[in-house]
Amino acid sequence: MLHIGRNIFSLLVSRVLSAVILFLVYTRLIQYLGPEAAGQYGLLAAFLTVFSFFVDLGMQQLVIKKVSENRTEAGKYLANYFGIQFILGFAFMLLMDAIVLFGNYPPLVKHALYITATGLLLSSLTMPFMAIINAFQRLSIIARVNFINAMINAGMMIAAILMRRNIFFLAFIPAMVSIFDIIVYSYIVHKKFTSFKFSFDRIFLKQLLIWNTPFMLLTIFSIYNRIDTLILPHLRGYIENGYYTAVYKFWDTLAFVPAVVAASLYPYFAEKVPTGDLAEVKKVLITYTRYMVALAVPITIGAYLLALRLTVSFFGQDFAPAAPALWLLVAAVSLLIVYVPVNALIISQRTKFAAMITGVNLAFNIGLNLLLIPKFGFVVAAVITLFSELIQLIGYTFVVQTQIVSFPYFKNFIKPVIAGLVMGVIIYLLRAQNLWLLIALGAVVYLASLAALRFFQKEDQELLSASINFRKKFEV
């Protein structure tokens, strides 16, 4: 379990630093663009995000799982996966171009979307190399590259502000980042893990596609928490989408936590469960569920109490109407944080059930968005996202508890909720004080309350110490 902590710590340090920098730059960019242009920029991001779910069709998860189980086959999987990915990337780039061509978009938005489609193709070609690195559980490599990606992203955003550029300039960011990633990841994989030789094995490809069916369905259905960003501008216009795009950045920033934990736990579970070591799996599941609950509770309470001040502070008074959506989206991503350990386990071991639950969730999400957004606007989109994450949490946890391994669950909430309420009372009583002072004080009060409640255990200190001691080597 120690190398999981090492992987998570590496990615967290990288993601926290890059997320803070990107978030601060992004808030300045949104203020520079204004609500309407921010809504147009949000549409670019929505297209890229939604199509990114389709362009891989779940193959990355499958390859990570298979290579984790048998690393000697890494070269074979890489070669065939890259070929599949090139075809998929090119096909979905053309599909996106066709949708844009016949869509009713302003010329500037249309041209920017064409550039975004090229970035989609390039980003898809990075996935095979990242899958191999992930399967070998060397996530510190991905952490370092992610940080450089963030610097490229932030640098181009700053350039756009200083040079007074529009969204067409910003549309080039994904392409520039992906070109860098392809060069770096391909070199690292070839030097450290397996040689890359482009090839097609028809029999193997056929088997790969059969294995991939449940992963493909799961990946397609996973757009449930992003589909509203694509629907909203068409039903309510660019200004409301600008509000939603601004506060959705809180989701994107906080979502790095479940992404990091899932990336670390998924190959571990894929390796351990087939060996029958369920005692170790249960231990890891309990440990990281406890951590995730402890993180999610104060984020949710703090966002509820400080939503308006956070919105105005980061995005300006023009975006004040977005404050209710900010809290709801933070609450939704907090639920995602809570269930991410069971998410990693169910996807690696019960992919078909995960696809069924997520498919139902997608239908629920699309139906309610189409029904309610025209009347109630962007805030109801955030409400639907919150309920969607609750469906995922309940469904995934039930399957893991009944079909894979049972573990104590609800008791993980008792001490964090008590500590969170203490923190909330302090923040409410001092709500007129400086925002940053309140956030810092809230964090101190919460941690002190957890310590007083004896939430922290001896093994937590040992795990933290091992995670940050990079001189110590682990067998993986």
Explained architecture:
Its main location: membrane. InterPro entries: Poly_Biosynth_Transport (IPR050833), Polysacc_synth (IPR002797). The chain crosses the membrane at residues 7-26, 38-57, 78-105, 111-133, 145-162, 168-188, 208-227, 247-270, 291-312, 324-346, 353-372, 378-400, 412-430, 436-456. Keywords: Cell membrane, Membrane, Transmembrane, Transmembrane helix. The chain is mainly alpha-helical. The protein has 2 domains: 2-408, no CATH class; 410-466, no CATH class. The chain contains 19 helices and no strands. It has helices at 2-56, 59-69, 74-102, 107-124, 127-135, 139-162, 167-170, 173-192, 202-221, 227-236, 238-254, 256-272, 278-315, 323-349, 351-376, 378-404, 414-429, 435-452, 458-468. Helix 1 (2-56) packs across helix 3 (74-102), helix 2 runs antiparallel to helix 3 and helix 5 (127-135) crosses helix 8. It is globular and about 65 Å long. It starts with a helix and ends in an 8-residue tail after the last helix. The model is unreliable at 466-476 (pLDDT under 50).
